[in-house]
Amino acid sequence: MSRENGDFIVIKAKENGVNVIGLTRGKDTRFHHSEKLDQGEVMIAQFTEHTSAIKVRGKATILTPYGRIDSDE
């Protein structure tokens, strides 16, 4: 099944050094990609056939089709 049109999320860093980590699908969940954002930087990420989860570490605002989440609250 192709997930080329998977859900997008937007991550905006509220501080320097926010980590965004992509996790794989499959029998064993593994890290497959990592980015570091500084305050004010924005990243747009997509769930795909390879990405089943996205982990955000640090103070950030995350916008999803399901709502807004502030990781520092």
TrEMBL record:
The protein here is known as Transcription attenuation protein MtrB
The record's section on HAMAP family has: Trp_attenuator
Q: Which GO terms describe its biological process?
A: DNA-templated transcription termination; regulation of DNA-templated transcription
Please give the InterPro entries that the UniProt record associates with this protein.
MtrB (IPR000824), Trp_RNA-bd_attenuator-like_dom (IPR016031), Trp_RNA-bd_attenuator_dom (IPR023558)
Which keywords has UniProt assigned to this entry?
A: RNA-binding, Transcription, Transcription regulation
Highest rank taxon of the organism: Bacteria
Lineage of this protein's species? Bacteria, Bacillati, Bacillota, Bacilli, Bacillales
In the UniProt record, does the keyword DNA-binding occur? no
